[in-house]
UniProtKB/TrEMBL annotation:
It comes from Myxococcus virescens. It comes from the Bacteria. Catalyzes the NADPH-dependent reduction of 7-cyano-7-deazaguanine (preQ0) to 7-aminomethyl-7-deazaguanine (preQ1). It is an enzyme of class 1 (oxidoreductase). Gene3D superfamilies: 3.30.1130.10. GO terms for biological process: tRNA queuosine(34) biosynthetic process. This is NADPH-dependent 7-cyano-7-deazaguanine reductase. The keyword Magnesium does not apply. Belongs to the GTP cyclohydrolase I family. QueF type 1 subfamily. Pathway: tRNA modification; tRNA-queuosine biosynthesis.
Amino acid sequence: MPSQPSKELQTFPNPAADRDYEIVFDVPEFTCLCPLTGQPDFARFKISYVPDQSCIELKSLKLYMWAYRNEGAFHEKVTNTIADDIIKAIQPRKLTVVGDFFVRGGIGTIVTVTHDKSKQQA
């Protein structure tokens, strides 16, 4: 059976939870729909994080990102939602999500969301 899009992010235990290290995902083929026109918006996402106790499972991230394909979403909203969902799933020590939306009407948009767990607890 073929894979289906899903908003469920699967996780697995961090194999080196005693150490800070960075994981970077490059998602060059993200698509969603413009909520005003219904036309497709294309973007490249870069997600980098320092895991705490859990890591994101790669296939579930692929299916999660695919789930936006038929959704209308402003660039700012979708980038913040992706960050919020990852934070909820794994509570990373640090997270940066960069949505680099392709030029439309002569304007490209880059939205960057950052999270630092140590600053949240202070």
